[in-house]
Design brief:
mainly alpha, 2 helices
Length: about 100
Amino acid sequence: MPPPRRKRRTRAHYQRHLVNERNYRERLNDKIDHLRTLLANTKCGEEEDIEDDAQLNKGETLSRAIAYIEGTNTEIQQLKDTIATLQSRISTLEQED
């Protein structure tokens, strides 16, 4: 028995595929532009002076976003540690009274 034949894809199929791909790229680029805008309003720990943040390419935008998130997570952990230390001091002082 011969193998089943694959259906031939039509021109309409390829046109739909191209439209879907274009829409996907547009949505992705919109999200990266939004991220670029958000990063421009924050300090990302980068001391580099870039004349225009709109000039950042996609890779640099994602790298800066990752650095910002990692820095924020580190800061959150330090604050949690500070809170724990202060709570420990408070309980020690309350026991002394």
